[in-house]
Write a structure and sequence with these properties.
The chain has 481 residues and is of the alpha/beta class. Helices cover 19% and strands 17% of the residues. The structure holds flavin mononucleotide.
Amino acid sequence: MRKTISLLLSLSFIFSLAACGQSENPGTSSQQPSASNSLEVTDMQVPENFVLIKGGSFQMGSPESEAWRSADETQHPVTVSDFYMSKYELTQKEYKEITGSNPSNFKGDNLPVENISWLDAAAYCNIRSERDGLTPVYTINGQNVSWDRSANGYRLPTEAEWEYACRAGTSTPFYMENSPSAEDANYYGHYPYEIEDNYFSQGNLQIKPGEYRQTTVPVDSFSENPYGLYNMHGNVGEWVWDYYGDYSADEQTNPAGPASGTLRVYRGGGWNDFAKNMRSAYRATLEQNKGSFNLGIRLVLNAAPGSGSVSGTGAQNTSADGNGKILIAYFSWGGNTEGIAEEIQSQTGADIFEITMVNPYSSDYNTVLDEAQRDQNAQARPELANHIDNMDEYDIVMIGYPNWWASIPMPVASFLEEYDFSGKTILPFCSHGGGRFGQSLTAIAKLAPNAAMGEALSIHYSGGSELSGDVSEWLNSNGIQ
Ligand SMILES: Cc1cc2nc3c(=O)[nH]c(=O)nc-3n(C[C@H](O)[C@H](O)[C@H](O)COP(=O)(O)O)c2cc1C
């Protein structure tokens, strides 16, 4: 059933374009580690704009009391050694200087490079190491990348190093005492921390909704964290070395994540993320051969030689070639996703299935906002009213949903957990009110880690007159006629 909600939704999820702040050019400023901090750096000069992060021990992950935490943030004690980290996200200028290309969606020398895959990032580190007379740390063999910890070249931080540096000694959700406002960080500023719980009582919010810039900003914008690092929360997410996997609850020293996997982790949130997804402990994921306009990198260097080699076996889930049997499964509250599903069906002739609940959400808009945030915060798995008996027959499952609070509605989580998607390709399609996918692709990847993920489609509300063309372009990009 469709409901007439477009006016309400367009009012609620309205956004504005705005200019972004600019300060000093990071290429010209320099901060060497102070003498009291500096370690022996045997055979290299510390590059401009890198700061020494003195190692130490911390609680990695989030306490169970933290609002909007995920189950995969299990707190555990971790010790990291000293390392150098760039004060800034890598700029487009730095990327172009080495590679001659610039894949970024938003263009500007002093903006962070984005839209680079993890594999591109590893390759960049190696080439820049060679240019600077350092020893490349990565051996790249197709999807498999191993890391020589004794090499002194540029590299990505480990997940533990990243979180340690971001926290800068804090144990709060963000490194700043109060959660960030849009004046403190570049994110989806309409949605400060905990707005979901206080949408109708914004007087309770510690930080009021602010600007949503809809673009990256120069890498030296805003204030640095206590360790001298800029934009650890927001602007672009940052790839780290680690494959995604469950944390061990045991104490660890210099952990580097699982030895193999299908997803790499990225951290810190970007211009398109709600504040909850910029938390110091929040873990986002993507396949290592993909990029996003919301995702860049920040480089680190060893402060003293490490030892050993960390292997990385990149298991890539095989995707269907576009010729397999297709199922379109969708959840829709207001009818927009349903309209997109029907357009896909009319272009493909595929089987179509609506995900419905035993206890459906309220048809009242204000009530469903509350219900949705309650279920999401509790990571509820609502019982579904209908089921697919012949899931084995499908090679490609297109999963449609509205963006709800920057993620998937929880009935979609119930659906993803009900079936085994190994060997299948998931093609997500999402209807949204301005937030594109939010972190919904991370949510799907975590719930169906053995599926291959094809190109995803995001449609603003119902898509209007462009829907048909957008759908056919998307089908083509996935090899489907
Ligand atoms: C509970 C709820 C939460 C929403 N959260 C978001 C959001 O975080 N970002 C966004 O862009 N749109 C958000 N929207 C807007 C919907 O994604 C958008 O209206 C979509 O077209 C609805 O699809 P549907 O008609 O299939 O339900 C939200 C809507 C509802 C009802």
